[in-house]
Structures are given as C-alpha cells and as structure tokens.
Give the backbone structure.
Amino acid sequence: MYGEAGAAMREELAALLRQHRVQQKLGGPTRESRAELGGRIREYRQSVLVWMNQAMRAARPVVFSNLPAADPNPFRSVGVSGPLTAAGELARAIDVATRQSSAHIATSEALTTPHPNAMVEHWRQAARAAALAEHDTSIETAVRMTANQAQALVGDIAALTQALVVLDRRYTMIPGWEPLQDGPRLGWASLAAALDVNLGQPDYSVDHLGWRPKTKVLPDPVRPGIVGVLQAEHNLVIRMRSTPSAINLRLVVDSQRLRSHHLTPFAARIDPRLATSG
C-alpha cells in the first residue's frame, strides 16, 4: 500500500535530516571514494525524484487549490490559463529537477543490496520505498483517487521535496556533487503546496490505495483457544467473497451467534458493557 511506502520514505529522509557533519558521516579515505559514494546517493535521489514526478502527474487531474482565487486580470490575453496552482508549480519544479539531473536511477541490484555506509543505506531505503510506491500511485490507481486524497498525496510530496532541498544544500561539499536544478524554486513551491494542502481537508485514506498482497486462507491445523477462533474468522471472511448458498449462510449466522455467546465472559473482563446476553 502507498501508506507503507510513503511512511518509509519520510522516515528515511527524516533520519538523514538528523545527520550533520556530512563529510564525516560519508567517510571514505580519499576524495575519489567520497565522490563515488556521492554518485551513488545521487542515483538514489534520482529514484525518489522520478517517483515524485510520476505521483504529481497522477494527482494533478483531481487536485484543486484551497487558496483564494485572484482577482480577474482584464489585461490578460485571451486563451491564457488562469493563475497557477501551488500543486501545478510544484509539479513543474519537480519535473525540471528530474529531467535536468545527469544521474541515472538506481539499478535493481543497487536497490536490493544493503550498503555498509549508514548514510548511503538511508538513501537506499528511501529509493527502494520510492520504487515500490510507483505501483501504488500509478495512473491506474489515480483514477480511483478523490480530490482530498490527491491533496494528501501532494502534501506528502511537498514534505519530501523540502527534505531533498535541505539535504541538497548540506551535500554541496561532497566531491562531484550535482545540486538540484533551481533548488530555491523547488523549496518555495513545496512550501506553497504544503500551505495549500493545510488549508483544505486532505484525506489520508490515500494510504490504503495501491498494491497489497493477496490474503490467503490460514491452513490447518486449527489453533487452540482464541487463536483458533481468530483463524476461523479470518478464513470465513476470505471464503465469503463468493455468495454462499442458503444452507451455508444459515450455518455462518449460527456460528457467529455461538461465537458471541462463548466470548461474552471474556468480553466482561475488559468492559462489563460489552457482555450482553448471547
């Protein structure tokens, strides 16, 4: 789900923001080795930028601005679009930064192989989460996204953008480091988009969109006690995806009645109000 991948990106970038003395954290005995590590970080950063660019394209068709509309300009030429939204400006700034970067996205091997350097490892984890999130915020998923869900997604991207801008400034002394294209524009656009989102009502149920593994039936043997009850309820929910026959439906209803009756004493231990006659 997007919620898991998005949270992973935010956690890893937050960990990087807490790291100062970048040259010391990066280590490396020579300038060339530090330049090599910096190049790997740029690849991981590019993977995050590519996802952000894709996610903004998915969100823009349904997102809207919460900022008050500007007064109409009588001198505006016919055919020119209205005022730029904060999300639109952020999308353009991210697109420019992505296209102007000379770094390639990280390879599958680089994404899946842990790195011995702790700072680089944080970047790898962020890039790996971005690669997983591509399936959760694809165009196919975006068609089910509401305007408020899109605003929540834009808010997340704005926060990630601010983190990338701050880290970009800290890493300027890394040998061979390539700064983000028009970093100040990225920073201001992300602040404006974050303000726009906070003025609205973002719907964080967007976290539940995207790919999730198929739920499977828990196999035998049946577990003893309350664990076995939970196992049976889990399997029942999965098998109820198909319409049961009248006889099976009656068995299901009767089993739920018996379950409620036998669980009443356990519920009373937690809260007497939950203990109703079954």
